């Protein structure tokens, strides 16, 4: 079968048509890419970021009034660690599942990665740093030290804060109640048995 699409000598063959179409498409593609490259810097420079800017907040942390300029989207965890240099609470999961960032807010244990800094204004915030007065440790971290209830240490601040909150609420809490109080905290090093020993000591000594 002939490849000619027309009957005259001036007819275009299918091969010629496809070749010509391919060259035209390649040229158009190159031209489009060149134009996009030329326009990209201008488009980038013209881009405008939208959203509320930083605002001044005052937080009551461990008995001290601290101020910082933070964006409304900043969590209490990030405000404490990155803006106020209160680093006892740790960032581990950042998803409200591990408990390493636990702090007390008005006496209640709270995952600080789940609370906006703006929401903590006017509230009494206590972190693991509040469990040290001078050279004296609070009984909870004391029990952890005696029982060697920590390894890497990242989870420890969250555990001791959660236990302190439970004992503040009920100084006569039982072992089972204290274990339930830290059910939302995870120790990736697996020192749970030593923590149970620390809890036993706290219950025997009355927290």
From TrEMBL:
Q: Which keywords are on file for this protein? A: 2Fe-2S, Iron, Iron-sulfur, Metal-binding, Oxidoreductase
* Molecular function terms from GO: 2 iron, 2 sulfur cluster binding; metal ion binding; oxidoreductase activity
Query: Which chain regions cross the lipid bilayer?
Result: none
* Domain of life assignment: Bacteria
Coiled-coil regions listed in the entry: none
Q: Does the keyword Metal-binding apply?
A: yes
Question: Which InterPro entries does UniProt cross-reference here?
Answer: 2Fe-2S-bd (IPR002888), 2Fe-2S-bd_dom_sf (IPR036884), 2Fe-2S_ferredoxin-like_sf (IPR036010), 2Fe-2S_ferredoxin-type (IPR001041), 2Fe2S_fd_BS (IPR006058), Beta-grasp_dom_sf (IPR012675), Diverse_Oxidoreductases (IPR051452), TAT_signal (IPR006311)
Q: Domain (2Fe-2S ferredoxin-type): give its ranges.
A: 55-131
Keyword Cell division tagged: no
The UniProt entry, under SUPFAM superfamilies, shows:
2Fe-2S ferredoxin-like (SSF54292), CO dehydrogenase ISP C-domain like (SSF47741)
> Which Pfam families does this UniProt record tie to the protein?
Fer2, Fer2_2
Q: Report the PANTHER family cross-referenced here.
A: OXIDOREDUCTASE WITH IRON-SULFUR SUBUNIT
Q: What is this protein called?
A: (2Fe-2S)-binding protein
The protein's organism comes out as Thermogemmata fonticola
What taxonomic classification does the UniProt entry list for its organism?
Bacteria, Pseudomonadati, Planctomycetota, Planctomycetia, Gemmatales
């Amino acid at each position: 079968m002939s490849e000619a699409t027309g009957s005259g000598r001036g007819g275009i063959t299918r091969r010629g048509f496809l070749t010509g179409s391919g060259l035209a498409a390649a040229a158009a593609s190159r031209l489009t890419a060149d134009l996009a490259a030329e326009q990209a810097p201008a488009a980038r420079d013209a881009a405008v970021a939208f959203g509320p800017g930083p605002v001044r907040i005052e937080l009551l942390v461990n008995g001290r009034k601290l101020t910082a300029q933070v964006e409304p989207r900043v969590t209490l965890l990030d405000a404490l660690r990155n803006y106020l240099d209160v680093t006892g609470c740790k960032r581990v999961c950042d998803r409200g599942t591990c408990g390493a960032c636990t702090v007390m807010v008005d006496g209640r244990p709270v995952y600080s990665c789940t609370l906006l800094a703006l929401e903590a204004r006017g509230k009494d915030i206590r972190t693991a740093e509040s469990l040290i007065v001078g050279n004296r440790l609070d009984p909870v971290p004391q029990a952890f030290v005696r029982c060697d209830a920590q390894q890497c240490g990242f989870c420890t601040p969250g555990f001791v804060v959660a236990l302190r909150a439970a004992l503040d609420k009920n100084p006569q809490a039982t072992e089972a109640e204290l274990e339930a109080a830290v059910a939302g905290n995870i120790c990736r090093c697996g020192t749970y048995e030593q923590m149970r020993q620390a809890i036993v000591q706290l219950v025997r000594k009355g927290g």
